[in-house]
Structure formats: structure tokens, C-alpha cells
Backbone:
């Protein structure tokens, strides 16, 4: 199993958000995590990626056979965990090209490899940009500075393509996207999907799942996964609304 | 945001050791400690100076006696005991230093260790260097190449001997000894520095550079640099500096004067890396300098670029007097303070001529317990019609124990001029750091990346040879400053 989360409890500033969450993800799978606002979906993403301030009070996160609780965020990233941010931040003065090269070389250093040759790097930039339909001009712009909502999300998928993660978590990647951008983002994900990697797609709406077809759908409520099923569960949710879940968990 | 874990890491700061803190063991010629007229006369005699220069020194000294050490900076500058300082220290001399063979190998090794090779054969980049150790110039490279163009680039002492009229004509015309306390002190006891003269219409083919090194203990360094660009001339000049790691504070009070005649352009770049003291604020250099350029001719241009990472205390305001019509003054600064460093730095742009323009871009970065202040004056004289100034002062805070301050002074004497001032203060956000980390970039590298991005506007103004160095320096200075 690529990712195996056991009885995970996470608190922020003393308040418990995740209350015993279990989730198993195998290579080659796409999992969708759905649920109403404030049930801990983004907290789950933060806990897996090791964000500071998210205190794991109980439970384990097994990834590639290691319990990664306590591992630094950059080490987790270099072990192949990628997060597509819900709100990508701006980094003024740092070009995407410079940012990506620094990231790729950090990973190579982590793996005991020499820095990527410039020619290879530029070729890779070009290929991956084409995949998410980003114009080449974007690479010299500063990371997310002045980007539209759609550009920011495309840039996240572009970075994902560059870093080739084993486990990619997409946190509300569909929020604020028009239908064209949504299609491009989904195409990117489908293109990158391989038998040896996995995706966890966090979304509020069923819409994205028309484009990225999940193997499993999990519904979160009050810090736990309360219902799991196939892709039809998403449709059922769309039809019945989250009230249905809430009621059945009272 | 929960700041507790961040503070813990700040407390755990393990700063990288100052890389240039070594001492060279070399025989040194000192004058006795303390300052009086006899010492001033002794320095002048040691340098075999003409009567007029001794006279200049003595006037400066007598004026200095009437002044008090200024205390208006946002600094904890203690009252310095000026009798407890040695005012002249020189590595003991061999004869005249014409070829490398005659330079003490120990000195060459010192500069090699600092990354400044004085062997022309070994230098790939097009940079001529004047290397100054304590009170004297060790060696100036590429003098032959330069002299073919009529360019004079030599130590100040040599210039006094070889080109006394030029030195006498310009010395003290931009920074008179009456300017301020430290300028008066420097004018009385200055030891060496660089002199640079670009004749009419000549574009200097090399970057000129002076590297200052304090070595001896209990010694002040008082260098003086004078750059003259005649009509239509151009020169790019760079200055670098380091000092050994010592527990006591060392005084550095320099003067730089630049004169640009009609259509001339001078670019002056500094990467200041004097020993900043240890992480508890012990030791370090007091960097108290007066730097000023005079755009004397029409359409002349003087541009200051500084990257300030060193010194326990920095007090410096490189400025431009825009006398010629259509003349241009620029000031680009990145000042980084960490631990207990204090910097009060900025510029003065004095608009006298018509249609004069000035640009000020200042980026302050503070971390640890440091204090970082921008202080700048823009003055537009009544006759300076259609003058323009644009000022932008940004402060970046790392952690919550440090301070950033901005003191802009604006005086506008006419109604046709336009002055703009923008200021921002920001923090490296936890979001930015996490974003970088999530892409696999470790914290220290991430800070370096973010800070270099923040300072990009200024770093872009540095000559290539310096830019890479400066980028590295920024990252190193802030190493371990945030978690």
C-alpha cells in the first residue's frame, strides 16, 4: 500500500479536527475525498504533507512502508508527496523557472544525484508546459504573482508534472475554475496518472469527477471518513446532498 | 498562525561562522595608540606627504576637536574612546611594489584566501583590483592595461606622489572635512584607499575594484576613495571588505568622493561584509562612512548600489548632489541585519539643477534581534525646476524580535517637481515557506530563495562579478534566522 493512514487524530491550536481517520491508497488508484465545509478535508492534506501547526495527537501515517509522522515537509516532498494547493502563494522576484530548478535540484540532492543539466531542464519545462497549455511566457513570471485563479491552478499541475510525485494530493483544485481550465487541469492529471502513482482529489463538488474518474469516493464528516464507495457515491451525494450524510451520522 | 514553533527555531539559531574571520600573521608597523596633532603629523610623514596635505589634515583635526560624535541614528553607538585606537597600521614594507614578486607572499596568500587573486595571470574576469590591508595598499593589478587608456587607478598614497595636482584639485570638494564628525576624523588621519581618474571620453574597459581588509587589532581603518570621471567618461567601480573576527569593536570611518563631469557616468557598487560580531552581539566593526557623489556636469549620472550584510553598526548614506542640468542620481540598496546588528542607512539626493532625476530603491531585511533603518533625504532646491524623484522603501521582517524603520525626509522648493514615495513592510510568511518546502526545498534554501527574490530589483543592478557573490552572501547572512 502506498499510503496507509491509521486512526489519525489532528489538532490545531488544541482543537481536534481529525478524529480517528483511516484511509488506504494503493499505487495506480485515484481517490476522491468529498464532504461539507469544515469537516477536515484540508487538514488531512496538511497532515499528510507535514505542515507546521497541525499536531498529530494519535495515529500513524504510513507512506512507502515508513511512518512519516515527524518527517520534515521537504523530506516528505522529496519522498514523492505533492500537494496542489487550494490557495497557491505568491513569491515575488522568484521566477517559475528558478523555483522549479531549485525544487528539482533539491530533490536530486536528496537522492544523491547531481544537479539537472540545463539543457535537460529546459526541455522538460517545455514539454510539461505544453501539457497543461501554459504559454512559455509564464516561466519567466514570478511564482503566482499576478496570476489569475485559473493560471495559478494550471501552474500547480505544471509543477506536479515537473516533480513527478508518487502521491499527489489535489486540494480543491477545481474551486474558482471555469470549465476550460477545469478540463485542462483534469487532462493534466489523467495524463500523469500511471500504475505506479496515486492521486487523492479533495473536492467539494461532483463536477471535477466528471473529468477525473475516481476508483474510490470517500465522504468526510466531522473529522472522519463516514462513507466510502465507488464513483457512483459521488453522484448519489450530488443528488441527495450532504444533509443525507449528516442525518445518517447523528 | 501559531508562532511558538517558529520562535523556538529562532532561539535555536546556529549561525554560520563568519567565513573571513581569520588573522594574518604579518609584521606590522604601528604608530602609537591615541590621537593628537603629533600623530597626524607622524602619519603624514610616514606617507611622505607634501605640505599642503599635512595642512589639510591638521585643519581637519582641529575642526574635529570642536565636534561631538553624532547620536541621531537609530543605533546604540557607544561613545568611542578615540584615544584607545591605533590610527595607522601597515604591513611592513619591502621596497616599491611594482611586481608581484616583491609583494610579501603572506599578503598574497591572505588575499587568495579571501578569493581576491592579485596575480593578473590567474584572473579571468575583467576586473582590476586595488588591495588595501589596514592602512596601506598592497597591490594594484592591471595598471599597465589601464594606463594605455590614460586611466589612473592606484592607491591614494601613490596618487598623492604621482598626481598631486589632480588629488589636490578634487580632494574634499564633495565631502569637505567640515561635513560631519567622522568625515573630519577621516580627513585628519586617513591612510590609504584608491584614486581613480578616467580622462575625457574614455570608457573604462575593466571593472575597477578595491578590496579593503582590516587585519591588525585595535586599529581603525580610515580609507579614502576619490573617483573622477571627466567629460563623457564611464567607469564601473566595486568595493568589497572583510575583517577578522575579534571580541572588541573596530572602527571603520571611510570617505568616498565621486565627481562626474558633463555626460560622465559612474557606477559604484559595494558589497559590505565587515565582521558583524558574534550571535550575542559581541565584537564587530563600526562602519561609519560618508559617501557622496557630485554630478557636476550636465547629463552626468552617478549610481550607488550597495549590499550591506556586515558590521555590528552601519551608519552610511551614499548620496548624490545633482548640480548639472538633467543629471541623474540613483541609489539601490539591500541592507540585511541579523542577530544584534544595527543598520541606519539610506541616501541623500540633493537636486540643484533643472530636470534632474533621482531614484531610490531600498530593501531592508531584518532578522534575529537586529534593527534596520532606512533614512533618506530628498531635497529639491527652488531653482531645480522639473526635478523628479521616485523612492521605494521596502522592509522585510524575519521573526518577531527584530525591527524595521523608515525615516524619509522630503524638502521640495518648487512647484514643478514631482516626488513620489512608496513604502511597504512585510514578513516572510509561513505560507511562503511551506509552499517552498512542499516542493522539496529545505527551509534555509527557501529563505534564501525568497529573500533573493525580494531583493532582485537591487541585485540586478550589480555587476555580474558581484551579483553571484551577493546572492550567496544574502543567504549565508540569514542562515538559521527563521524556522
Residues:
Amino acid at each position: 500500500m502506498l499510503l496507509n493512514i491509521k486512526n489519525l487524530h489532528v489538532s490545531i491550536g488544541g482543537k481536534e479536527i481529525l478524529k480517528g481517520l483511516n484511509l488506504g491508497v494503493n499505487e495506480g488508484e485515484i481517490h476522491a475525498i468529498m464532504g461539507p465545509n469544515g469537516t477536515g478535508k484540508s487538514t488531512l492534506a496538511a497532515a499528510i504533507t507535514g505542515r507546521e501547526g497541525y499536531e498529530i495527537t494519535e495515529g500513524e501515517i504510513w507512506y512507502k512502508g515508513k511512518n512519516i509522522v515527524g518527517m520534515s515537509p521537504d523530506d516528505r516532498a522529496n519522498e514523492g508527496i505533492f500537494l496542489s494547493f487550494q490557495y497557491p502563494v505568491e513569491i515575488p522576484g522568484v521566477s517559475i523557472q528558478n523555483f522549479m530548478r531549485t525544487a528539482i535540484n533539491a530533490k536530486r540532492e536528496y537522492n544523491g544525484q547531481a544537479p539537472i543539466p540545463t539543457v535537460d531542464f529546459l526541455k522538460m519545462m517545455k514539454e510539461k508546459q505544453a501539457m497543461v497549455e501554459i504559454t512559455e511566457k509564464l516561466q519567466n513570471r514570478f511564482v503566482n504573482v499576478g496570476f489569475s485563479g485559473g493560471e495559478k491552478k494550471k501552474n500547480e499541475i505544471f509543477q506536479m508534472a515537473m516533480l513527478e510525485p508518487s502521491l499527489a494530493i489535489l486540494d480543491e483544485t477545481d474551486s474558482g475554475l471555469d470549465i476550460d481550465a477545469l478540463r485542462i487541469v483534469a487532462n493534466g492529471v489523467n495524463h500523469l496518472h500511471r500504475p505506479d502513482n496515486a492521486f487523492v482529489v479533495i473536492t467539494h463538488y461532483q463536477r471535477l469527477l466528471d473529468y477525473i474518474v475516481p476508483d474510490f469516493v470517500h465522504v468526510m464528516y466531522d473529522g472522519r471518513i463516514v462513507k466510502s464507495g465507488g464513483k457512483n457515491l459521488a453522484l448519489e451525494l450530488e443528488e441527495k446532498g450532504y444533509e443525507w450524510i449528516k442525518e445518517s451520522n447523528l | 498562525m501559531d508562532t511558538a514553533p517558529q520562535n523556538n527555531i529562532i532561539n535555536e539559531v546556529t549561525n554560520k561562522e563568519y567565513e573571513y574571520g581569520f588573522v594574518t600573521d604579518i609584521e606590522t608597523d604601528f604608530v602609537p595608540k591615541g590621537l593628537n596633532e603629533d600623530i597626524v603629523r607622524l602619519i603624514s610623514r610616514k606617507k611622505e606627504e607634501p605640505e599642503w596635505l599635512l595642512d589639510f589634515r591638521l585643519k581637519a583635526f582641529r575642526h574635529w576637536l570642536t565636534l561631538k560624535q553624532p547620536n541621531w541614528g537609530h543605533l546604540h553607538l557607544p561613545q568611542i574612546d578615540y584615544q584607545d585606537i591605533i590610527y595607522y597600521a601597515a604591513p611592513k614594507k619591502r621596497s616599491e611594489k611594482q611586481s608581484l614578486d616583491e609583494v610579501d607572499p603572506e599578503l598574497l596568500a591572505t588575499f587568495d584566501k579571501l578569493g581576491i587573486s592579485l596575480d593578473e595571470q590567474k584572473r579571468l574576469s575583467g576586473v582590476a583590483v586595488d588591495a588595501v590591508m589596514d592602512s596601506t595598499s598592497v597591490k594594484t593589478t592591471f595598471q599597465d592595461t589601464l594606463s594605455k587608456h590614460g586611466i589612473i587607478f592606484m592607491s591614494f598614497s601613490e596618487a598623492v606622489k604621482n598626481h598631486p595636482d589632480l588629488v589636490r584639485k578634487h580632494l574634499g570638494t564633495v565631502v569637505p572635512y567640515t561635513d560631519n564628525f567622522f568625515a573630519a576624523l577621516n580627513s585628519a588621519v586617513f591612510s590609504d584607499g584608491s584614486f581613480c581618474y578616467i580622462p575625457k571620453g574614455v570608457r573604462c574597459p575593466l571593472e575597477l575594484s578595491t578590496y579593503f581588509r582590516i587585519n591588525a587589532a585595535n586599529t581603525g581603518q580610515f580609507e579614502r576613495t576619490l573617483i573622477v570621471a571627466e567629460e563623457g567618461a564611464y567607469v564601473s567601480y566595486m568595493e568589497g571588505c572583510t575583517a577578522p573576527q575579534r571580541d572588541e569593536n573596530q572602527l571603520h570611518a571611510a570617505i568616498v568622493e565621486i565627481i562626474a563631469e558633463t555626460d560622465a557616468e559612474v557606477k559604484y557598487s559595494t558589497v559590505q561584509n565587515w565582521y558583524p560580531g558574534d550571535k550575542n552581539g559581541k565584537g564587530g566593526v563600526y562602519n561609519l562612512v560618508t559617501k557622496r557623489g557630485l554630478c557636476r556636469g550636465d547629463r552626468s549620472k552617478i549610481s550607488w548600489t550597495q549590499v550591506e550584510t556586515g558590521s555590528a553598526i552601519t551608519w552610511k548614506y551614499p548620496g548624490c548632489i545633482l548640480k548639472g542640468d538633467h543629471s541623474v542620481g540613483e541609489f539601490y540598496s539591500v541592507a540585511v541585519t541579523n542577530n544584534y546588528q544595527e543598520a541606519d542607512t539610506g541616501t541623500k539626493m540633493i537636486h540643484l539643477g533643472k530636470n534632474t532625476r533621482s531614484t531610490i530603491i531600498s530593501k531592508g531585511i531584518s532578522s534575529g534581534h537586529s534593527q534596520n533603518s532606512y533614512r533618506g533625504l530628498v531635497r529639491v532646491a527652488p531653482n531645480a525646476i522639473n526635478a523628479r524623484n521616485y523612492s521605494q522603501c521596502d522592509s522585510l521582517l524575519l521573526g518577531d524580535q527584530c525591527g524595521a524603520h523608515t525615516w524619509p525626509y522630503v524638502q521640495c522648493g518648487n512647484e514643478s517637481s514631482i516626488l513620489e514615495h512608496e513604502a511597504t513592510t512585510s514578513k516572510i510568511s509561513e505560507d511562503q515557506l511551506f509552499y517552498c518546502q512542499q516542493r522539496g526545498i529545505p527551509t534555509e534554501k527557501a529563505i534564501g530563495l525568497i529573500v533573493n527574490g525580494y531583493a532582485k530589483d537591487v541585485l540586478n543592478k550589480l555587476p555580474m562579478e558581484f551579483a553571484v557573490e551577493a546572492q550567496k552572501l544574502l543567504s549565508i547572512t540569514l542562515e538559521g534566522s527563521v524556522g
Remarks:
- The first strand of chain A starts at residue 3 and ends at 12.
- The helical segments of chain A are 41-49, 73-78, 96-110, 118-131, 149-163, 179-192, 232-240, 243-248.
- DSSP finds eight helices and twelve strands in chain A.
